[in-house]
From TrEMBL:
Keyword Oxidoreductase on entry: yes
Keywords linked to the UniProt accession: FAD, Flavoprotein, Monooxygenase, NADP, Oxidoreductase
Annotated protein name in UniProt: L-lysine N6-monooxygenase MbtG
Coiled-coil boundaries: none
Molecular functions (GO terms): L-lysine 6-monooxygenase (NADPH) activity
Cofactor entry: FAD
InterPro entries (UniProt xref): FAD/NAD-bd_sf (IPR036188), Lys/Orn_oxygenase (IPR025700)
Catalytic activity: L-lysine + NADPH + O2 = N(6)-hydroxy-L-lysine + NADP(+) + H2O
Length: 476
């Protein structure tokens, strides 16, 4: 990680004549994986930028005991390069924690441990620039490179300097943002009564515990974890907890071994080759693959509720699925009133509560603002979404000889595996193989027992990658 002396006005970090080979925008797990796998490719000149002052993975949800939903092998590099110095196991070795991990027999890491591992990688990899907000990207035909404008931010997020860098190719790994349903947006913006998104849960935990009654909305993993955390911490018999969800049930996440093969390169390739309308029809029906609740969390909730009936009586909790919030408003200065619709019953009711936690999920961060100047060059599908090829490249007008790759913004073309950490290393390797016109990371031609789709006579099953855009001649 490198930093520029305070207040210095930087105009061009790549030197007057040489654009970078690759600039990465956003340093979440996915671009961190790419940076770690690019590191040994010394002929590649790369730099990655993130607006946050340092790497922190979903800090508002590092709830004690919360774990990843994928095994530790889904770290930043292992599934394509198990000998990399950036593996989770090597991180443990540097921390002299391999034996404790060996005896811990933990396949699913604590979320806090994954966060610490990624931060270790981010603090030891070169060419990662935190505190750099990328403001705009445009194509410079003279330089045959993208111009990337950034604002250097101070530790409090204040703008300190403006700068520009040039790169032949870009990768957007700008992640997701919390989603707040329309009926609750006004309330979420007003600080008086806590109406918070689950992403900020730990910042408000104590205040929520002090409230007599709280309502959790949303039946995903975050909603379940917050409900469980509050349930465990609130006095028996005076829990004052409502848990509401639009889904017809508090349903488990699909975790069967064959079901999980939807998170493989084989399924991603199959999905990408489907017609657009078929892809669009498939995704909503696959919600339980990535939006359900981990079965161990569901079991822990039932256990805690059951434990609270041992002295007789039932806990003061209400868990109701199939309910959506039609509107919401304030009651005085200290309470919120939710107007609820029960879809199956066709009934309505009102719920007054002291605080609301919106475990209502995330949406892919919009690329349009960043890429506004490139809009004329971007090829779009019938839904006005960027067309993205099998190498995770945005389809651009041929006059743009550089490539723009995306990470975690291509569910519409690559399916449910897009936000999955288990595909991080494979996607990064796919991008680097495409970028270098070589195969620094040979990839498996088969990754699932399920054969998705019927074999097509024309489908090649080789590891090589056809090219588009700028050619990268390795620098000796
Ligand atoms: C609480 C939670 C738990 C999850 N657990 C799992 C799990 O167990 N298993 C799993 O497979 N998936 C999980 N996911 C899904 C997914 O893996 C994560 O969301 C992951 O963080 C996505 O990584 P990312 O790199 O796409 O984006 P993010 O982690 O969202 O990072 C994007 C980065 O881009 C930066 N950025 C954005 N715009 C700009 C800009 N203009 N300039 C500079 N920087 C910018 C942001 O500051 C941010 O640091 C979880 C998601 C959440 C929310």
């Amino acid at each position: 990680m490198t930093s520029t002396p305070e207040g210095a006005l930087t105009t061009d970090t790549t030197g007057p004549d040489e654009p970078l080979d690759l600039a990465g925008i956003g340093i979440g797990p996915f671009n961190l994986s790419l940076a770690a796998l690019a590191h040994p490719l010394t002929h590649l000149r790369t730099a990655f930028y993130d607006q946050s002052p340092a790497f922190h993975w979903h800090p508002g949800l590092l709830i004690d005991g919360a774990t990843l939903q994928v095994p530790f092998l889904a770290d930043l590099v292992t599934l394509v390069d198990p000998a990399s110095p950036w593996t989770f196991l090597n991180y443990l070795k540097t921390r002299e924690r391999l034996f404790p991990f060996y005896f811990a027999e933990r396949f699913h890491l604590h979320r806090a441990e994954y966060d610490a591992y990624c931060r270790w990688v981010s603090e030891n990899l070169p060419d990662l620039h935190f505190g750099h907000q990328i403001d705009a990207v445009r194509w410079n035909p003279e330089r045959e490179a993208f111009e990337v404008d950034f604002t250097q931010l101070g530790t409090e997020g204040e703008a300190e300097a403006l700068g520009r860098t040039y790169a032949r190719n870009l990768v957007l790994g700008i992640g997701t943002t919390p989603h707040i349903p329309v009926p609750l947006r006004l309330l979420a913006d007003a600080p008086a009564v806590p109406v918070i998104h689950s992403a900020d849960y730990l910042d408000h935990r104590e205040r929520l515990l002090a409230a007599d009654h709280i309502t959790v909305i949303g039946a995903g993993q975050s909603g379940a974890e917050i409900f469980l955390d509050q349930l465990r911490a609130r006095p028996a018999g005076r829990e004052g907890l409502h848990w509401l969800a639009r889904t017809p049930a508090f349903a488990p996440m699909e975790y069967s071994k064959l079901g999980l093969e939807h998170f493989t390169p084989d399924y991603t390739r199959y999905f990408h080759a489907l017609p657009e309308r078929v892809r669009d029809g498939l995704v909503p029906g696959q919600w339980q693959l990535h939006k359900g609740i981990d079965h161990t969390t569901l079991a822990a909730i039932h256990d805690e509720l059951y434990r609270r009936t041992l002295d007789g009586g039932w806990p003061d909790t209400t868990l109701t699925p199939g309910v959506c919030v039609r509107t919401a408003g304030r009651v005085g200065t200290t309470k919120v009133e939710l107007h609820l619709d029960h879809t199956q019953q066709g009934t309505r009711s009102r719920l007054t509560t002291d605080a609301v936690i919106l475990a209502t999920g995330y949406r892919e961060r919009r690329m349009d603002t960043l890429l506004a100047a490139l809009d004329p060059y971007v090829r779009r599908d019938s839904g006005e979404r960027p067309r993205i090829d099998e190498h995770h490249r945005i389809a651009l007008d041929p006059s743009v000889t550089g490539s723009i790759y995306v990470q975690n913004a291509e569910t519409h073309t690559h399916g449910v595996g897009t936000p999955d950490l288990g595909l991080a290393a494979w996607r990064s390797a796919t991008i680097l193989n495409s970028l270098t016109d070589k195969t620094p990371y040979p990839l498996p031609t088969r990754t699932a027992f399920t054969t998705f789709g019927l074999p097509q006579p024309s489908t090649p099953r080789t590891g090589t990658v056809p090219r588009q855009g700028s050619t990268l001649v390795p620098r000796h």
